[in-house]
Specification:
protein serine/threonine kinase activity; Transferase(Phosphotransferase), domain 1; six-stranded antiparallel β-barrel; about 325 residues; three-stranded antiparallel beta sheet; alpha+beta; single chain; Kinase-like_dom_sf; MAPK
């Protein structure tokens, strides 16, 4: 990041309008208003991330499941950073789920929108990496607490043939990474399917629940081992086919063989009761959370799942 930053009250000139900075949200994100007092978001970051997001949003501008880009900042002229103007949303869907897990109708709405976004990205050769970035606008429509669901922050998206993907470079929050990415093996668009499933579990259960979080803290040297153990515990055992995956070597094989989870304590999610999670939600999640990425359905296939035909509210 550049040492300089925007100031409150500063005016920025875009291709289409003038924007006044009103609040800093994060190191790279500001709130602003346009000439009609409409609230927008200004994102300023290193060119690589901004260029990636700008390129993808231009390509997918007709897809309403992705956060729209409104404008591009021209003045002040970018130094080592660049800036774009994005549509403002009220909050992250995770903030809503903190208070109470998503209802069946809410979960299907989020699932449909995220999978629509992933489908277009995957079909054009991109891995999103962070399906947890789901934004919503608040409303109150019966059991629906939000509307206008979209996937945001495409700056970290990578091509399927990128060095990061083919070398297994770890990206994203550890507890939402796929098994192959966690083990630093090559990963594909199926990585996003696992991350989506882990995100959906957290949103349905609510209250900041994270199924793969180990007992130790993130800075503990056994933290990643604890996550791998929880893969095995909730969705295991790892199938024999795992040994045929590209990237399996002695180090990764040892990590897998050293997992000591009693047989009765493996695959616990499959045996979750209907009082813990609805049968329909359970079956949908079980169908996509496959330890071997080759067994996971595509986003397009998941959109045809019977789960979306459920009318439960």
């Amino acid at each position: 990041m550049a040492s300089s930053a925007f100031n409150i009250g500063q005016c920025l000139k875009g291709r289409l309008g003038i924007y006044t900075i009103t609040e800093r949200l994060y190191p790279t994100t500001w709130l602003a208003t346009d000439a009609t007092s409409q609230v927008v978001v200004i994102k300023r970051d290193v060119p690589k991330r901004v260029d990636t997001e700008r390129t993808l949003l231009r390509r997918f501008q007709e897809n309403s499941s992705l956060r729209p880009m409104i404008d591009e900042i021209q003045e002040p002229r970018p130094d080592e950073c660049a800036a774009i103007v994005l549509k403002h949303y009220d909050c992250h869907v995770g903030e809503i789920a903190k208070e109470k897990g998503l209802s069946p109708r809410e979960a299907r709405c989020v699932g449909s929108r995220v999978l629509q976004a992933l489908r277009v990205m995957h079909e054009t050769g991109y891995i999103y990496v962070k399906p947890a970035n789901i934004l919503v606008n608040l409303c109150q429509d019966g059991d629906m607490r939000f509307k206008d669901v979209c996937l945001a922050d495409l700056g970290d998206a990578i091509p399927t043939d990128s060095v990061e993907a083919t070398s297994g470079y770890p990206r994203g929050t550890p507890v939402f990474r796929s098994p192959e990415a966690t083990l630093m093996m090559p990963f594909t668009t199926a990585h996003d399917i696992w991350s989506f499933g882990a995100t959906l579990i957290s949103l349905i259960y609510g209250y900041n629940f994270s199924i793969f979080s180990p007992a130790c803290k993130p800075d503990d040297e056994m933290y990643v081992d604890g996550i791998v153990r929880n893969f095995h515990k909730y969705f295991g055992p790892f199938p024999p086919s795992y040994l045929t995956l590209p990237g399996i070597d002695d180090v990764r094989l040892e990590a897998l063989t050293n997992i000591t989870v009693e047989g009765k304590d493996r695959g616990l999610f499959k045996r979750a009761s209907s009082t813990e999670i609805r049968n329909q939600d359970h079956d949908f999640i079980w169908d996509l959370m496959k330890l071997d990425h080759r067994d996971r359905p595509t986003a397009a296939r998941l959109l045809e799942h019977k789960w979306f035909a459920d009318s439960t509210s």
